[in-house]
Design goal:
binds iron/sulfur cluster, mainly beta, globular, three-stranded mixed beta sheet
């Protein structure tokens, strides 16, 4: 069985260590873990990391209240991550 990891189409958290040119370069992020559907992998830091040639995907999502969530995984084809206050949230979140 081949499983496609949902892509992170864009992310405007430019201060995150994994962000370059509004793209995520972490191999896989985890979403959820707070009151918001936040990117739990984000690290607001002047340091830059991740893999420059890699476009990030969603490895796991803990937001069961989202319509796209199936068994704690994201079932969307791709997601947008957007800054909300001082943290980054999944902008594709849709309440069940
Ligand atoms: S906030 Fe999350 S999605 Fe955005 S660059 Fe950082 S780790 Fe990637
Ligand atoms: S779209 Fe929904 S299931 Fe997918 S990462 Fe965002 S909050 Fe999680």
């Amino acid at each position: 069985m081949s499983i496609q990891m949902p892509s992170i189409l864009d992310c405007n958290a430019s201060n995150c260590a994994y962000n370059r040119d509004e793209k995520c370069h972490a191999i896989a992020i985890t979403v959820g873990g707070g009151a918001c559907p936040l990117c739990d992998t984000s690290w607001m830091s002047p340091k830059k990391g991740g893999m420059p040639d890699v476009s990030g995907g969603v490895g796991a999502c803990k937001v069961e209240s989202c319509q796209f969530n199936r068994s704690l995984e994201c079932g969307a084809e791709g997601i947008h991550i957007k800054l909300h206050a001082s943290h980054a949230d999944c902008g594709t979140f849709k309440k069940r």
